[in-house]
Design brief:
Blueprint (H helix, E strand, L loop, with lengths): L5 E2 H9 L1 H9 L9 H8 L4 H6 L2 H4 L8 H17 L3 H5 L3 E7 L3 E9 L4 E5 L11 H18 L5 E6 L4 E6 L2 H15 L20 H4 L4 H6 L3
Parallel strand pairs: 1-3, 4-5
Antiparallel strand pairs: 2-3, 3-4, 5-6
The chain binds iron/sulfur cluster (SF4).
Iron/sulfur cluster binds next to α2 and α10.
Length: 227
């Protein structure tokens, strides 16, 4: 296995599907910058107080994914819960933002950095699962914690995951299972020297931009073909 320095994004993609990661790394024209919509959703994570004060009508024009009244309620509940735990102001006023962190094995951008204790925050533009966080985000969370810990030469025990379009904020403990999954993803990326097997979970393929190249039948294609 090589000791290549791996990006957070490759770790995330390899956890989703190693083959997709292979295509992404070998594709000349893969646009690896997040689309502007993602940036505007992430920006919500720096405007919570303003969003909580805004009238429902004003929230209509924000890139939120649920109805304005429901959004304000949910974000209000999140604020209450985290204020009780003395965490809300840390998240609203992080020590640093969009920091490039480079650890021993991996590197990438950490969206917010909290101090005392040192904790990274990842801001997702997507929808949270019913409970916990998605598996690729779990691997990303461990990677961000390791990179930050390496740079600061400090221990990191917890990561935050924000889903600002949904008003949801969750914590991630760095369990043994999560760390093992991270190490597996790191090995997968470092060992990629040809297209690996397709994922068994074909529902993932429906949203994959490499479906044609990969040769799988996506749901859209299946319905077009009448299957
Ligand atoms: S189409 Fe499916 S199997 Fe192929 S790369 Fe994408 S997610 Fe992986």
């Amino acid at each position: 296995m090589s000791r290549a320095h791996v990006s957070f994004s490759d770790l995330r993609t390899a956890t989703y599907c190693p083959r997709k990661c292979y295509y992404q790394r070998t594709s000349d024209d893969a646009d690896r910058e997040p689309p502007p919509q993602v940036e505007s959703i992430r920006a919500l994570a720096t405007r919570y107080e303003e969003l909580l004060e805004a009238p429902a009508g004003a929230l209509e024009s924000e890139p939120i994914a649920i109805a304005p009244v429901q959004y304000r309620d949910r974000l209000g509940t999140t604020r209450e819960r985290l204020a009780d735990a003395n965490q809300w102001s840390r998240l609203c006023e992080p020590s640093d933002q969009d920091v490039y962190a480079s650890g021993r094995d991996c590197h990438g951008v950490v969206h917010k950095v909290l101090e005392d204790p040192l904790e990274p925050v990842l801001v997702s533009a997507g929808e949270p699962p019913d409970q916990g966080i998605w598996e690729p985000q779990s691997v990303h969370a461990v990677a961000a914690a390791k990179a930050l810990a390496w740079e600061h030469q400090q221990r990191v025990d917890r990561v935050w995951l924000e889903y600002p379009a949904y008003g949801v904020i969750r914590t991630v403990d760095l369990t043994t299972r999560r760390k093992a999954r991270y190490r597996r993803a790191l090995r997968t990326v470092r060992d990629l020297d040809g297209p690996p097997a397709r994922t068994n979970n074909r529902s993932k393929c429906d949203a994959c931009e490499f479906a044609t190249q990969c040769g799988v039948r996506t749901r859209t294609l299946r319905s077009l073909l009448g299957f």
